[in-house]
Target: DUF559 domain-containing protein
Amino acid sequence: MGHLVRARRDHYLPGDTAEAVIRAVRVGGRLTCLSLLSMLSVFVLRHRALHVHLPRNASRMRSPHDRRRALSSRTRRGVRLHWLPLINPPGKSACVSILDALAHSVLCQAPRAALATLDSALHQGLVRMDEVADMFHALPAKYRVLFALLDPRSESGPETIMRLMLRGLGCEVKVQVAFEGIGRVDLLVDGWLVIECDSRGFHTGWESQERDRRRDILLAARGYTTLRPTAKMIIDEPELVLAAVKRALATRPR
Model:
């Protein structure tokens, strides 16, 4: 039998429990929001704090690093507490449900980042669209406008963010468009501009670059123009990417 970890008084967890889960239980709650979603390989734009859900009657909260120290303004640094009533009863789990984690992530992120997280969870089949619709009814009404912007066909967080940036420009954007003899492209803008959101995991190595360049040449032969911003550019330099897109759109030959 494996050893146990004493997270706090009367709370023991298996020795192989993830450290973030142990720290959340030590505080006095359950792991949630970006902390839990990142563990499940759901896209989150920024993740630094420990996100913990607490019941309304929570008491005797402790430092996530030391169960002997009370949670104070000093020991609370790096901890984000969530008090929203849960959608799904967690039972004895040390984590909230993924639907509750997604609900909390909407409150914790800017709209584009929240939509990228939701698209990621939907695309991976971790939740259904009808469940997400119900989730939005549990959130303040001002967030419900986001539901219409979801698209589970988006295969990555940066792709969702890029799609929303393009919509902000008033462009017509189609997602995951298939071209005979070439394959699918991430985004097709105004019927002629192809945007591929490249990530390190799928576009490294000479063979991958050769394949990508061949696709671009084949698309060019059919009258399409391709832009390939990296995921890092989309996230860290959105103004640069948008400037390139605007210039391309403005200079399209008639």
